[in-house]
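Quick start: what a row looks like.
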Amino acid sequence: MEGFRYVGDKRSQLVYDLDDVNDESVIEELVASEQFLVFGPDSLAEARNRGYRPRTV
């Protein structure tokens, strides 16, 4: 996920801002599950277009 700022969780339809993560374990679990999605363009607006809701950790 290097080079991306917004990462979506396919299981919950939540999007995480990797520039604003306080709890790395949440992202590590997401990567291990292989149920994530990155957006192109890499923006919160694009994540919302795809039905994802912002989540802070």
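That is the whole record. The CA atoms of residues 31 and 53 lie 18 Å apart. The radius of gyration is 10 Å.
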